[in-house]
């Protein structure tokens, strides 16, 4: 077994015979039944829209359990999972260390609404690994963390406007559900019903990878901009890799204009390494937001800054922010256990190397076949794009029509036991639980799926 796998690893991707037959659809009977019921209770049958499988084939799969790199649905289908609950599960599902710590802490009760030592413990683990922030506050989601960071920036600077980038996602608070209007530097337009126009008018939306747009926005709204917010690595609308010099430029533009830089690391925090994207670019943000991984699969968000800036948060300062379940002991326990594992020496090197080998092989395969397909990647994050562009740095460069191809790929992959997030705009994650054997299996399935996608071009 191992010997034959070794042969597979060193094999040449271009020698693999073309596979063009679709596989029959897996049974989704139980999931379909549950979905019918769910539609009675929840809008679209779900509690977060992307889960409804609107951009891929079939009814959403209802997941029954997860273990390591696998999930099982209600019909008993097993999948190698690359969604990882959208990022938090860097150790894979149901990691024994996380489960044990959560189980232990739960014996003492679930919530007190009073301080616990566990909050200190998780804060120490985060701050020890971060030279950019001195004080933090825990929230219950990434959305809350970013919303609070924006309020803090406004409270600290006494200014109202924020600059955000088209193609970056920062959760669903009102100020951030704003898309670009027409023209290079304009007031945003709401991207959701229910967001007042007057809120959107406080958010300026500009394209990524465009220095002039940043300069124009600052010039036009002189001394009105409280903060510029950008994702550490934009990874919620494809993987829009930015050049380090551009990130440095944004940092400098903020400083020159008296605005704060909010680096939203909800997805990148503890994903690329212990210090996230800030260290990756070597830029110092004024406010950082984290989420996802620091909760180990439970609801946790966090924002942090220098002691001076955080001094503006109540009860020390005048910027109000609170939470009934903030710093929840069970959630803290999961975060402590997870970050303790991540802190082991060599963790990120092993994970990132494994992930990079995986995506490089997929890219070699697609290139050998002349498929119009590119894998964009950073650390253990990857994004499948049906394109021949060497770089995609802005959302405008994403070809919406190519999502039809992703749709076919997604179905072929599910039918081969591979679970990707149900949208071509979403990235995938390799976790520490993906062994070489499973990654090899996944690669084979991806090769076949690509052959099917490109067989009827
Ligand atoms: C996921 C995410 C959020 C929102 O976090 P939730 O926990 O879903 O509210 C905000 N910003 C970024 C960069 C994210 O990836």
TrEMBL record:
GO terms for biological process: protoporphyrinogen IX biosynthetic process. Its main location: cytoplasm. The modification N6-(pyridoxal phosphate)lysine is found at residue 292. Keywords: Cytoplasm, Isomerase, Porphyrin biosynthesis, Pyridoxal phosphate. InterPro entries: 4pyrrol_synth_GluAld_NH2Trfase (IPR004639), Aminotrans_3 (IPR005814), Aminotrans_3_PPA_site (IPR049704), PyrdxlP-dep_Trfase (IPR015424), PyrdxlP-dep_Trfase_major (IPR015421), PyrdxlP-dep_Trfase_small (IPR015422). It holds the Pfam family Aminotran_3. Its cofactor is pyridoxal 5'-phosphate. GO terms for cellular component: cytoplasm. It is an enzyme of class 5 (isomerase). Pathway: Porphyrin-containing compound metabolism; protoporphyrin-IX biosynthesis; 5-aminolevulinate from L-glutamyl-tRNA(Glu): step 2/2. It comes from the Bacteria. It catalyses: (S)-4-amino-5-oxopentanoate = 5-aminolevulinate. Its EC number is 5.4.3.8. The keyword NAD does not apply. It is found in: Cytoplasm. GO terms for molecular function: glutamate-1-semialdehyde 2,1-aminomutase activity; pyridoxal phosphate binding; transaminase activity. Gene3D superfamilies: Aspartate Aminotransferase, domain 1, Type I PLP-dependent aspartate aminotransferase-like (Major domain). NCBIfam families: hemL, PRK00062.1. Homodimer. Belongs to the class-III pyridoxal-phosphate-dependent aminotransferase family. HemL subfamily. PANTHER family: GLUTAMATE-1-SEMIALDEHYDE 2,1-AMINOMUTASE, GLUTAMATE-1-SEMIALDEHYDE 2,1-AMINOMUTASE 1, CHLOROPLASTIC-RELATED. This is Glutamate-1-semialdehyde 2,1-aminomutase. It comes from Pedobacter yulinensis.
